[in-house]
Amino acid sequence: MTKxxxxxxxxxxxxxxxxxxxxxxxxxxFDPPVTLLLNGEGDIYVEYGQEYTEQGAVATLSDAQEKVPxxxxxxxxxxxxxxxxxxxxxxxxxxxxxxxxxxxxxxxEAPVITLTSDPKSYTLIGEAYLEEGFTATDNYDGVxxxxxxxxxxxGVMHYSVADSSGNVTTVTRTINYVNPDAPILTLEGxxxxxIMAGEQYAEPxxxxxxxxxxxxxxxxxxxxxxxxNIPGIYTLKYTISxxxxxxxxxxxxxxxIPKQTEDEPPSAEILPNPGTVIEPNGKTIxxxxxxxxxxxxxxxxxxxxxxxxxxxxxxxxxAYMDVLTRAAKEGHTIAIHTNSHDYxxxxxxDEAFMADLEAIQSKIQQYTGIKxxxxxxxxGSSNSVSSAYSRGIMTRLTKKLHAxxxxxxxxxxxxxxxxxxxxxxxxxxxxxxxxAERQNSVVLQHxxxxxxxxxxxxxxxxxxxxxxxxxxxxxxxxxxHHSVRN
Length: 486
Ligand code: ZN
Prior knowledge:
Bound molecules: zinc ion
Low-confidence stretches: 7-29, 264-280
Radius of gyration: 32 Å
């Protein structure tokens, strides 16, 4: 075979292959007779352990509006992290159309570090801190105590741990340094005491020790009085001196709390507020809790019950929805916050917001039997974050909700528990400072934050002792609107 003939044969073969190839591609070039569309997003993120709801897909014939059955292959196992591919198949007349959805089972919940504190523990200046103890657990990884990294920075211990998904938690503890020359005075029962008016104050005790003089508890001088019959805030001062003239002092605050009378049980439907009503006599506190229910909500309800104080819960879908049944029964207002709390979803469009609202509304009804017409926007009505998803949406939604008979509530006292306030003490300070500046306070807290829930008993005690009335929000409450900025 000459070289020329070989080239000709190769060219002819190439042409044949190309022709067959083109023919094969051409058959796929025809419009498939079936149109297959996924319901919902192509990528769905589901939190580990939460339920994945298959939204399915719709297949129709391209030229007629007739439906074609869709076969779904694959499923997401939300008890295991990972990406799950779901395949949707629709066949008609020998043509098959397929579509895919990826379900990402993720863990975005950070581990929880719990510190053990010994109130009698102290560290002498110049000595190393002796650890009082801690545990770390994670919803996915379980016990992570051994992986906690501890570091001392400027007298503060920092404890950090990451779970296997990279969620990091850090908590801190301020080291209780004492001067080795001074006596050490410790109050038993803590620095704050709560008693109901009519009960008598029983001193929980104190311990004074000294490196030189030994046990000095018997020499402690207690000044101040508590009258359990007269409501108010009392301070007792404890002082001890040692043989070299060094002192230690401590203070204990005792709240003698006036008794609250029982309220009327809540009505079946919470109606909207027709306008901004200011309490005529003032001095009213509306405690409001967003983002729950959570693992902290039940003990919050215990505190509210102890003082017969009613509060308002702006709820989000969670694994603790059954707590709402109790909350509603105990006279608290259950109101709408959001179903997903995902700004990018709820503020994507008016329709998306309303669909989310309907979803949480139906859950509230399921657990409480109440249809709530009270709402609070995630981020408040003044949020400008929403403009990244839909310009002007807050202006439209605030009007739309009013037109539909809903009342939305913002707040005028921010505990800042979602910001810089990370201790019960700081939350208490922020809240009481804000309340003291106004007649009617709508206080924002989050019952998803344990330290914020820890502050509630002292906030209630402070409020009741200072003559405030605690109320749950209802149709007669001040609407407390921020100015809309998007
Ligand atoms: Zn929120």
